[in-house]
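I'll show a sample.
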Amino acid sequence: MATFHPSLTNEKWQRLSPAHQILNIAAELSRARNATAQGDSISCTHSLERVSELLELSIADQKWLRNSRREFLRLKEFLAGYYISDNKKSEHLTQALQVLLFFHKDSSIVKI
């Protein structure tokens, strides 16, 4: 069971299509970006923690190819650095969001 999404199990997450998984992660990442832009560091921190949890669920999902899971790990590493950084800028999260949306062809059509 997920900590920040208590009703979400691995099985429920894995039933989502890859595009839906990406878009759910992107929604949380967008919340973090908006919180950063508004100077709300607490909301940004909470959103980044939820993003991390969703990334972990996707990494554990075997429908993703090995290379995709590796990219999720890279994104998680980038966001961990951002999480502990003293220099948080919403532009960095915008770039991460753009990269994330290109992980799957169906989510890549979303405009930010």
Summary: The domain at 10-101 is CATH 1.20.120.340 (Four Helix Bundle (Hemerythrin (Met), subunit A)).
